[in-house]
UniProtKB/TrEMBL annotation:
Protein name (Swiss-Prot/TrEMBL): Smr domain-containing protein
Native species: Acidiluteibacter ferrifornacis
Residue span(s) of domain Smr: 126-183
Family annotation (InterPro entries): Smr_dom (IPR002625), Smr_dom_sf (IPR036063)
Pfam (any one): Smr
Amino acid sequence: MIFTVGDKVRLLNEVGEGIIVEIISPSQIMVETDMGMELPFSEDDLLKLNEDNTVTYKKREAVIESKSLKQSKKKFTSSIPYNSDVRKNHAPFEIDLHIEELVEEPKKLTPGEMLETQIRHFRDCINEAIAFKISKLVVIHGVGEGILRQNIRTILRDNYPNIEYMDANTRKYGFGATEITIRNLHK
């Protein structure tokens, strides 16, 4: 990705955003963070923000072998039969967004590509849950730096007004999961 001085960027390995103040090399880009500190980052640690605060993801020419989304969706939807015990007991379905569950070779991905893959899978699963009238889900995003969790909650808040979310059961999931309740599915 080509960055220029003055570009607004989101930090991948830390929570926050900033503005590029100097480009020394692709491996060292000085960013003034929203906390007012100038810090060096690699281009792989930054996502360029557009004027409307959407993200431009870095695309590599190398073809990355993804686990079939159909395989992931099949795994997700195969437990959805109407009469299943899970459905009757209102137990939540789980969506695991750990990158190892979504792609064959996660080490070939940049942090931006990992995040893009996880978010795309999350959106697909939420839309399927709505289509299948599944009212409770748990999204397992892991703890990490909180970037994926923050993105998931922003997507839910901005795009799904009929969805409520909160931290999932910490005894079962630790602090790395969000419980989602979809309202008004049976109208």
